[in-house]
């Protein structure tokens, strides 16, 4: 693993308030970056063949520290100039933004690869758990230990 570029991690947060794409884009504003790749994850109305009415996210107290480690590793592995990731917790309705990740680089290839790595690693390793409520009255925890 390489070292992240100095100051490459621009914005990281886990919050109960609505997420804003403009905030993330502003955090990655850099004249040297020709490519910014942005991923926005929203609450969908179905999962596993069932209708979803809404969900709640909960984060372990170590989640932000783990997110920081993940972001620094992605920045180092891909040599990108900027990394940002914000995730919601609390109750979310259908259509609400649950997560935004973005990376900025001199070239699009690095930005695409880094953003894909960032969202995949965040979902696999950052202790944030989803509790889904289904239209049939059942519920399910996703990602919980």
Automatic annotation (TrEMBL):
Its EC number is 2.8.1.12. One of its GO terms (biological process) is Mo-molybdopterin cofactor biosynthetic process. Keywords: Molybdenum cofactor biosynthesis, Transferase. It is an enzyme of class 2 (transferase). The keyword Transferase applies. SUPFAM superfamilies: Molybdopterin synthase subunit MoaE (SSF54690). Gene3D superfamilies: Molybdopterin biosynthesis MoaE subunit (3.90.1170.40). It comes from the Bacteria. Converts molybdopterin precursor Z into molybdopterin. This requires the incorporation of two sulfur atoms into precursor Z to generate a dithiolene group. The sulfur is provided by MoaD. Belongs to the MoaE family. This is Molybdopterin synthase catalytic subunit 1.
